[in-house]
Amino acid sequence: MTDAAHYLPEGLPAPALAEPELEAPYWEGAREERLLVQRCGACATWQWGPEWICHKCLSSDMRWTEVAPRGRIYSYERVWHPAHPVLKGHTPFLAVLVELPEAGNVRMIGNLLGDPLQDVQIGSEVVADYEHHNDATPPYTLVHWRIAQG
Amino acid sequence: MRGRTAIVGIGASTFHKRGTSPDSEFKLTLKAVLAAAEDAGIDPHKIDGFASFNFDRTDPSRMAAALGIDELRFANLFWGGGGGGAAAVANAAAAVIAGLASCVVVYRGIVQGPDGRYGDGRTIGAYGRDAAYLAPYGLMTPIQWYTMRVVRFMHEHGIARDALRAISMASYHHAQANPRAVMHGRPLTEQAYEESRWIVEPHHLFDCCMENDCAAAVIVMSAEAAKDLKQKPAYILGAAQGSEYRNQARVHNAPRYGSASFSSVGPRLFAEAGVTPADVDVAQTYENFTGGVLMSLIEHGFCAPEEANDFFKLENLIAPSGRLPLNTSGGNLAEAYVHGMGHILEGVRQIRGTSTSQVPGASIAFVGSGPMVSPVSDLLLGNGNTL
Ligand SMILES: [Zn+2]
User: Fold this and answer.
1) What are the angstrom distances between the C-alpha of A92 and each of A110, B54, B199, B201, B346?
2) A121 to chain B: closest CA residue
3) Nearest-CA distance A133 → chain B (Å)
4) Ion ligand 1, residue ranges at CB < 5 A
5) How far away is chain A from the Cα of B134, in angstroms, using its nearest Cα?
6) Residue A2's pLDDT is what?
7) What is the mean pLDDT of residues B57-79?
8) TM spans, by residue (chain A) (predicted)?
């Protein structure tokens, strides 16, 4: 996807890194079109979003691991009310919660690309789509999802 | 805790439409506290504790000074959002039982004017923490964060959207009997519900709580002290707070996702009170959105998920004759958005027998605060026959 074709209009809040040391690897990966999630070096538990320790064995040996940019829709919603001024006239839009079976079923939020009025089925296979915001300061990349073909 | 404390007084301000209160938040809250003291027949100078929730802006020390109370002995704020109303009452009760204070006011005041609306996303440039993974995708307000939980739950259990409509219509039905209700005189028909705009599917406009300028307060004292006061005590039979395993795992990664957060809290509540859901005569359940009420009542065992399509019918949810009359004052949807405090006041009225939609002979009332958030909390209130 290019800058000219963002799913939602310009002017929404950008992601900020409240704890840069913890959160930067994910965002840096997205810039390179690589999907990274945390995996525990001690017990191999997958974890998302970023946290300082493994929730299972409490090890601090959390390793950023590249995962296949594939998943399936775990839940979704169609948003009609514009909660932000720039969304006025740009609803409805679709948000999905995608689980990643190849990464311990961790779940990620994104938009579902395509017709916002499309019929959405929980369980549908989706693939990641990287939306680059190159003109933002600093630039960032959002991970969206689209229905997998065939 | 069972039966050792009681709610002895209730009070509320006038309920205003959002942004229309002639009084400041502090003044509205004072009015609610004074009304509760008057209701109980207590000299306000004898109040010695305060409890609230959700970062309430009314400072208890300023309140103590304004009221001229003799001595402040307890001041307590419960973390979280709308899940804290019942918990604030529980904290007040715990303080009384522990001897930290003897007369604790639980209050909550909301005037939205100067600090903006709950329902709007803030237009700041960037969001950190969990919002960094949500706001850039257009998810900036509670209904956008929580509707996905409802969608998942309804999908898992095959629950039809009609259940949500029944919950909404029950609240509007009860508000028509309640002259204090903001939606009094504005009945809701099935057609008007269906034709109202979507906010976030499957939630229509009428599935969402209102926003109001209002305040409410209740007074908690020992069961012993309650006997000598003006009103019939509403005894606190049980209280519980918290949420299940990893409920707030970051970015929608809670293991139990289709959940109102009560799966562990509900069983603790009933065990504490020594009663079962079947013993409950009337339910007051916080509604940010109707989907949360659906999940909450099911998680508390008022109905099994597979029975939901039959249970959540308007005739089952209304007083006086429904199986489980729900939100009998109109609740957050149709009475006023007092952040769940209105539900506590209404639970007390049902126990006293003074509701505008009274359930005949109600002896046990359930009050649930804050579905889908964490922590959440619950109360069971009972009359003297339940002790
Ligand atoms: Zn581990």
Assistant:
1) 15, 31, 9, 10, 37
2) B155
3) 11
4) A 40, 42-43, 45, 54, 56-57, 59
5) 7
6) 44
7) 97
8) none
**Alpha-carbon span B343 to B177, nearest angstrom:** 16
Q: Which of B197, B205, B252, B256 is the best substitution to test chain A (most A C-beta atoms within 10 A)?
A: B252
pLDDT of B116: 62
Q: The tokens of B260 are what?
A: 């109102």
Chain A residues with CB-CB distance to B149 below 8 A: 75
Residue in chain A nearest B154 by alpha carbon: A75
Window A:103-142, CB contacts with B under 8 Å:
106-111, 122, 140, 142
Coil, helix or strand for B122? coil
Q: Which residue, B266, B269, B242, B272, is CA-closest to B373?
A: B242
What global pTM score does this model have?
A: 0.96
- What's the CA gap between B242 and B87, in Å, rounded? 9
In a 13 Å sphere around the CA of B173, the CA atoms on its Cβ side amount to: 23
Distance, in Å, from the CA atom of B107 to the CA atom of B64, rounded to the nearest integer, reads 13
Residue type, position B146, single letter? Y
B301 touches chain A (CB under 8 A): no
pLDDT at A4: 55
- Test mutation, B120, B123, B137, B141, chain A, max A CBs within 10 A: B137
A56 in contact with chain B, both atoms CB, cutoff 8 A: no
B212-255: pLDDT as tens digits: 999 999 999 999 999 999 999 999 999 999 999 999 999 999 99
DSSP B236-304: EEEEEEE-STTTT-TTT--SS-S--S-TTHHHHHHHHHT--GGG--EEEE--SBHHHHHHHHHHTTSS-
Tokens 């073909």 sit at which residue?
A: A149
To the nearest 10 degrees (0 to 180), the angle between helices B25-40 and B60-67 is 60
| Distance between CA atoms of residues B45 and A144, nearest Å | 59
ipTM: 0.97
The angle at the Cα of B144, spanning B142 to B147, to the nearest 5 degrees, equals: 95
How many helices (H) and strands (E) in chain A? 1, 9
- CA-based nearest residue to B326, from B273, B287, B375, B360: B287
Do the Cβ atoms of B129 and A81 come within 8 Å?
no
Burial of residue A27 (CB within 10 Å: 0-12, 13-18, 19+) is buried
Cα dihedral sign for B106, B112, B118, B119?
positive
- Within 10 angstroms of residue B369's Cβ, the number of other Cβ atoms is 35
> What is the rounded distance in angstroms from the CA atom of residue B276 to the CA atom of residue B288?
25
- Say what the pLDDT of residue A133 is: 97
What is the C-alpha to C-alpha distance for residues B46 and B35, in angstroms, rounded to an integer? Answer: 14
